[in-house]
Amino acid sequence: MPAGADPCALVAAEHGPSTVRGMELTPDVAGRYVRLAFEQMLTVADRLGDDRVNERPLGRRTNAVAGIVVHCCGVSEFWLGHVGRGRESTRAREDEFSTSATVSELHDLVAVTLAQVEADLAAIEAGADSAYAEGRMFLVVPEGDASLVVHVIEELFQHLGHCELAADALLGS
What we know:
Layout: H1 7-15, H2 27-52, H3 65-84, H4 93-97, H5 103-125, H6 146-171
Helix pairs in contact: 2-3, 2-5, 2-6, 3-5, 3-6
């Protein structure tokens, strides 16, 4: 795409005018999707209970649901907090997957994460500066940081699927 070109105008020139109105990804809508993904992960954790939430379904090469939930909290903090807002990160990504937690601890961790996500989304929408902002652009969308937020949502729902598969394998469902 030529520098400064309007992507909508290029698509319209090739395919005709759009019949769909423009869409925005507001902090409220993004937050609802993040919350939905985490709520569904916690539903899986509840289904497994403390006895199985830390169990790896197929041995060391697979991840326990607790580890995946902890990892998703780390994903949210890293991408929204570090990349999006510029907070320093001491994240140890690989350690997230081997973390053990009770179902209650996972609920508490997710509650803290969701509160921080809400604040981060609002700050990003308001134009928060970040020394790590170059990592915000997954797609060339110069009008905003939606691609960063969509990346987080994408990761959360992908890992929700991993949680569901792990639980099905453990419970024989």
